[in-house]
Amino acid sequence: MPKPRGRRTPIPLEARRSTLLEPAVQRYGDWLRERACSRFTVENYQRMVRHLGWWTIRRRRGRLSDVNEKLVRRFIAHHLPQCRCYVSRCVLPKPQYDNAAAALRGFLVMLCEEGVLAPLTIAAQTSPASSLVDSFGEFLRRHRGTSENTIASHQRFARDFLSTLPDAGLEQALAGVSLVDVREFALARGKGLGASARDRLRGALVAFSGYLRTTGYSTLEVEDVLPRVRRYRLASLPVAISRDEVERLLAAVDRSTACGRRDYAMLLLLVTYGLRSREVCRLRLEDIDWRHRRLRIRPGKTGRERVLPLTASVGDALYHYLRQGRRECTHREVFLTVRPPGGPFQANPYHMVWKYFTRAGIDSPHRGAHTLRHSLAVQGVRVGLPLKTIGDLLGHRNPDSTAIYTKLQMEDLRQVALELEVPR
Question: Which residue among 58, 74, 94, 301 is the active-site one?
Answer without folding.
Answer: 301
